[in-house]
């Protein structure tokens, strides 16, 4: 057997990765080769040093490199399994978490391969978005934002790479406030956009055009109620309450106004809520136990003098009816 083969076995001896036959053959060689004995001593010192450092938690860069290395290794022919045995042994000592990750990646790759060979892609159902494969896709222009690039594989020998990414491009929409597309985008922005200025302009589009809005629209109303209860910007909450005042008064809106009256920290919003509830009461739509209980509580505990007096006045009017 060639001398280099025995040298390749030295790391496997350290990590107890040799078969019994290989172990015996290497022992005989070490008795006759001082050079390999010296290399073995160096490896033992390195092994001892690694054990003293303890396990290392891999960062994102290391994980990406591990995935790429795994993809390359899966494409290479290695009949003896020598290289994989070395890398598995080293990873188990230096980076036990990486070894687990590599195993998971291998299982995932195998599952994807089986899925591609076994199943025929079906058309998406229920409005779910599925990744689109396009080998002839053009490079997005400067107006498109590219995000979440995920490498599938790369081949250093041929220069071929395979990856997926999310392409987010600006969409221009112009339409009436009653256009379903316009309402959907504005309602989504009102609830999800992180920029308070965008949320404010979205809710203002509803509140300023409430007379033109075809009512009721459940998607819009639900977005307005959620913004009224949860948005951290008082200007957005104020416009949401203003818009809801234009909707037909119902149980959902009543509960939203009661929520504001009890929990909102902005006194102007609490005043607007109690005034809206009183207007609905006058029209015979809001006098019930929930309203009475909240008014009694606000009359005693609200830190705003006007709200305490307003709650007391509404309660007295109800008693006189």
Description:
A two-stranded antiparallel sheet has the order 1-2. Helices cover 64% and strands 6% of the residues. The chain folds into three domains: 3-118, no CATH class; 173-248, no CATH class; 249-321, no CATH class. It has 321 residues and is mainly α. The longest helix is centred in the middle third of the chain and has 23 residues, at 96-118. β1 (145-155) and β2 (160-168) form a beta hairpin. The protein is elongated, with a radius of gyration of 34 Å.
Short account of what is shown:
By secondary structure, this protein is mainly alpha-helical.
Helix coverage percent of residues?
Answer: 55-70%
How many discrete structural domains?
3
Radius of gyration: 34 Å
SSE class = mainly alpha
Low-confidence stretches: 93-102, 105-130
Q: Oligomer, anyone?
A: single chain
What is the number of helices? 14
List the helices and strands and how they pair.
Blueprint: H1 3-14, H2 20-32, H3 34-53, H4 60-75, H5 82-94, H6 96-118, E1 145-155, E2 160-168, H7 180-192, H8 196-207, H9 218-230, H10 234-244, H11 251-263, H12 267-282, H13 289-301, H14 305-320
Antiparallel strand pairs: 1-2
Looking at this protein, list some descriptive labels.
single chain, 321 residues, mainly alpha, 3 domains
């Amino acid at each position: 057997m060639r001398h280099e083969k025995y040298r390749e076995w030295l790391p496997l001896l350290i990590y107890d990765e040799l078969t019994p036959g290989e172990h015996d053959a290497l022992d005989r060689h070490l008795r006759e080769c001082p050079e390999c004995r010296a290399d073995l001593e160096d490896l033992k010192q390195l092994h001892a040093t690694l054990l003293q450092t303890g396990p290392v938690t891999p960062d994102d860069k290391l994980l990406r490199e591990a995935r790429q290395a795994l993809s390359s290794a899966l494409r290479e022919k290695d009949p003896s399994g020598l290289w994989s045995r070395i890398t598995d042994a080293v990873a188990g000592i230096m980076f036990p978490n990486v070894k687990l990750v590599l195993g998971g990646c291998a299982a995932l790759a195998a599952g994807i391969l089986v899925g591609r060979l076994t199943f025929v892609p079906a058309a998406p159902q229920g409005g779910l978005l599925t990744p689109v494969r396009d080998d002839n896709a053009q490079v997005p222009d400067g107006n498109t934002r590219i995000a979440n690039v995920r490498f599938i594989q790369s081949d250093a020998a041929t220069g071929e790479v395979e990856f997926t990414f999310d392409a987010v491009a600006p969409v221009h929409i112009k339409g009436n406030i009653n256009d379903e597309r316009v309402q959907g985008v504005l309602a989504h922005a009102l609830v999800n956009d992180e920029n308070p200025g965008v949320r404010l302009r979205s809710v203002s589009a509803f509140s300023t055009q409430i007379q033109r809005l075809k009512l009721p629209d459940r998607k819009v109303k639900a977005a307005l109620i959620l913004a009224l209860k949860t948005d951290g910007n008082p200007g957005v909450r104020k416009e949401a309450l203003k818009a809801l005042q234009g909707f037909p008064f119902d149980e959902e809106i009543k509960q939203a106004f009661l929520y504001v009256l009890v929990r909102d920290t902005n006194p102007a919003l609490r005043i607007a809520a109690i005034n809206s509830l009183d207007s609905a009461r006058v029209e015979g739509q809001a006098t019930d136990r929930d309203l009475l209980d909240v008014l009694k509580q606000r009359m005693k505990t609200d830190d705003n003098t006007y709200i305490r007096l307003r709650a007391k006045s509404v309660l007295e009017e109800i008693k006189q009816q």
